[in-house]
């Protein structure tokens, strides 16, 4: 009775104010409770400005996936026939109906939005919290990350008008929280060796068993030291969270470890979202220096680009990932390889946002870009070590349309690094290219870890390289770092050198690697069968013969890879 009467009263008021009487709102996304590590501080100030982004529903995602596999599978007649930017845009850009429907709704609500992607699938606008709550039946509140004190304005659920269903994919940031360990976390330990002064050469370790250098990687993986020759062959390294790549350090590094090439060999800077690359020696980032030194210093002669993504985005991180894919997919000639050593726990993401980003990586794959991500450094406990009762998959490694890179250590035998994140996604199913590899592993594993991981999820990583005791220069001094952060740039260098040979032979670059790695490429990899990735109070997953969720299919051998691609 009471409810009916107040509804009536509300409708009357609405009539008086000339507003639409009853909006038909549909719950669009929600999360169960506040994620671990955050607390609610209270309601967000009604007049606080929110920067929101809308993603429109993309078309033809099944066809996009079919095309991605078609151009990336060696046995396919269309192998290597990558799509142009225009072809991909035409395939996936939202329908005019979606664009019109969303724009009409924006106009009705007096919102000025700007398009922020080449395919027109992302829009951004600013509104006060009051209006955002009203538009989306949301409850934008201030959440505090307990460990760091970082603030995030989020809502645990939101709705959209029924007429936008099927047109509006998601609103961000809403139910996706920033990564509890900073956004995104850096998959690397701080320089841990007692830093050596440049001049104290006597103390520089020489053995690859204890220190990894470019010469070690060349020896372990048969990587050539001869120069790549194809000027079109580009390798992109992404940088976030004010990680700057220092040129003087690169020179110092090359002068010590690559006496066979000019120590002035450098990289090209690209920036977005107000990114920059200041060169003060105290501004040098461990992660950025690592990534640049092990690409410029290993992919001899390949053009390396450092994409520095700035902080002009609310909460950095994921929006940086979104802006990076939009930026790279708008290039007429995107890089052939892109390596990223940042990521976060999958559970911090909304499934819709995870899917949206994953499809963006599929788009780049159809254009022939090899997308590489470090798998994370927390073993089965996620991006970084943490307490947990079930295993924590990382993002974007769980996305089946990119290559996730784990870490190994030691030379004889080469075994899994204990921190190498791996496991099974809770958001993405098992892609066909890895179904037999994954089922073979589960059979060998038996009941170990049962109930701790998702038996129908995409398994990761796909491949691994060395990731322990990499010597780098930071601020003019040498030290070592560990992490899958070491592994992803190393693989990027190897793939770039292979691409150089392919392009020189009139062939296409490798593009999305996984269908190749899990078929004709597997014989070119060293199977890693010892070590494991403990976490969540368990021993984690053991490395075993064939694919495993610690080292993937194993580590690369350049000479064998040349044969596997038919060179
Ligand atoms: C490095 O050089 C600094 C200053 O020149 C000196 O104080 C320090 O002891 C040196 N460290 C090592 C490990 O030689
Ligand atoms: C397991 O993964 C599948 C995707 O393959 C997903 O649909 C399902 O919800 C996941 N289960 C859990 C408990 O997260």
What would a concise description of this structure say?
The chain is 28% helix and 21% strand.
Kindly describe this structure.
There is one protein chain. The radius of gyration is 24 Å and the shape is globular. The relative contact order is 0.13. The chain is of the alpha/beta class. The longest helix is centred in the C-terminal third of the chain and has 21 residues, at 484-504. It folds into 2 domains: 25-58 and 93-172, no CATH class; 211-524, 3-Layer(aba) Sandwich (Rossmann fold), CATH 3.40.50.200. It starts with a helix and ends with a helix. The chain contains 14 helices and 25 strands. Bound molecules: 2-acetamido-2-deoxy-beta-D-glucopyranose (NAG) (2 copies). One 2-acetamido-2-deoxy-beta-D-glucopyranose binds next to loops.
Strand runs, count: 25
The CATH architecture term of the largest domain is 3-Layer(aba) Sandwich
| Overall pLDDT score | 89
Tally of discrete structural domains: 2
Tell me the CATH superfamily of the largest domain: Peptidase S8/S53 domain
Largest sheet: 8 strands, mixed
Q: Give the helix/strand class.
A: alpha/beta
Count of individual helical segments: 14
Strand content: 15-25%
Radius of gyration: 24 Å
Topology:
Elements: H1 2-17, E1 25-30, E2 38-43, E3 49-56, H2 61-72, H3 85-92, H4 96-108, E4 114-115, E5 122-128, H5 129-135, E6 141-145, E7 151-154, E8 157-161, E9 168-172, H6 214-221, E10 234-239, H7 247-257, E11 268-272, H8 286-296, E12 303-309, H9 318-329, E13 337-340, E14 344-345, H10 351-366, E15 370-374, E16 394-395, E17 403-409, E18 415-416, E19 423-429, H11 435-445, E20 457-460, E21 463-466, E22 470-474, E23 477-481, H12 484-504, H13 514-517, E24 525-526, E25 555-556, H14 558-564
Parallel strand pairs: 10-12, 10-13, 11-12, 13-15, 15-17, 17-21
Antiparallel strand pairs: 1-8, 2-6, 3-5, 3-9, 4-5, 6-7, 14-16, 17-18, 19-20, 22-23, 24-25
Helix pairs in contact: 2-10, 7-8, 8-12, 9-10
The structure holds 2-acetamido-2-deoxy-beta-D-glucopyranose (2 copies).
Residues 196-197, 200 line the site of one 2-acetamido-2-deoxy-beta-D-glucopyranose (NAG).
């Amino acid at each position: 009775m009471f409810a009916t009467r107040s509804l009536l009263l509300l409708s009357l008021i609405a009539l008086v104010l000339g507003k639409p009487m009853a909006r038909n709102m549909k719950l669009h996304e929600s999360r169960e409770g506040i994620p671990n590590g955050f607390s609610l501080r209270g309601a967000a100030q009604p007049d606080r400005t929110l920067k929101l982004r809308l993603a429109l529903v993309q078309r033809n995602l099944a066809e996009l996936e079919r095309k991605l596999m078609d151009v990336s599978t060696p046995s396919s007649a269309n192998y290597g026939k990558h799509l142009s930017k225009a072809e991909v845009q035409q395939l996936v850009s939202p329908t005019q109906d979606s664009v019109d429907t969303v724009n009409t709704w924006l106009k009705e609500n007096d919102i000025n939005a700007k398009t922020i992607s080449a395919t027109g699938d992302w829009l951004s606008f600013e509104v006060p919290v009051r209006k955002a709550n009203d538009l989306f039946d949301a409850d934008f509140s201030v959440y505090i990350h307990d460990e760091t004190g970082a603030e995030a304005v989020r809502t645990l659920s939101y709705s959209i008008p029924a007429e936008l269903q099927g047109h509006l994919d998601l609103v961000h940031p809403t139910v996706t929280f920033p990564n509890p360990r900073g956004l995104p976390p850096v998959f690397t330990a701080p320089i841990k060796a007692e830093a050596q002064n440049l001049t104290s050469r006597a103390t520089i370790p020489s053995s690859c068993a204890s220190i990894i250098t470019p010469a070690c990687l060349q020896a372990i993986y048969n990587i050539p030291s001869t120069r790549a020759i194809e000027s079109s062959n580009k390798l992109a390294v992404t940088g976030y969270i004010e990680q700057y790549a220092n040129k003087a350090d690169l020179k110092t590094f090359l002068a010590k470890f690559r006496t066979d090439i000019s120590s002035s060999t450098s990289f090209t800077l690209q920036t977005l979202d107000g990114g920059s690359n200041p060169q003060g020696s105290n501004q040098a980032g461990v992660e950025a220096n690592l990534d640049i030194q092990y690409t410029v210093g290993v992919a001899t002669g390949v053009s390396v680009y450092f994409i520095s993504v700035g902080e002009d985005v609310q909460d950095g991180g994921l929006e940086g990932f979104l802006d990076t894919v939009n930026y790279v997919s708008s290039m007429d000639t995107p890089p052939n390889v892109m390596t990223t050593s940042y990521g976060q726990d999958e559970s911090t993401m909304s499934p819709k946002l995870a899917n949206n980003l994953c499809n963006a990586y599929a788009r780049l794959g159809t254009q022939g870009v090899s997308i590489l991500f470090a798998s994370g450094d927390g073993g089965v406990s996620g991006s970084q070590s943490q307490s947990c009762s079930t295993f924590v998959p990382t993002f974007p490694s769980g996305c089946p349309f990119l290559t996730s890179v784990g870490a190994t250590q030691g030379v004889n035998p080469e075994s899994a690094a204990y921190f190498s994140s791996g496991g099974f996604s809770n958001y993405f199913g098992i892609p066909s290219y890895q179904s037999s590899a994954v089922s073979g592993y589960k059979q060998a594993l038996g009941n170990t870890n049962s109930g701790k991981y998702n038996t129908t999820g995409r398994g990761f990583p796909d491949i691994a390289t060395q990731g322990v005791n990499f010597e780098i220069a930071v601020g003019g001094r040498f030290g070592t770092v560990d992490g899958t952060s070491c592994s992803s740039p190393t693989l990027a260098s190897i793939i770039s050198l292979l691409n150089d040979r392919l392009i020189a032979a009139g062939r296409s670059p490798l593009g999305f690697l996984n269908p190749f790695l899990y078929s004709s490429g597997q014989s070119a990899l060293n199977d890693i069968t010892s070590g494991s990735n403990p976490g969540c109070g368990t021993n984690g997953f053991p490395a075993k013969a064939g694919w495993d969720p610690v080292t993937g299919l194993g580590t690369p051998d350049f000479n064998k890879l040349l044969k596997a691609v038919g060179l």
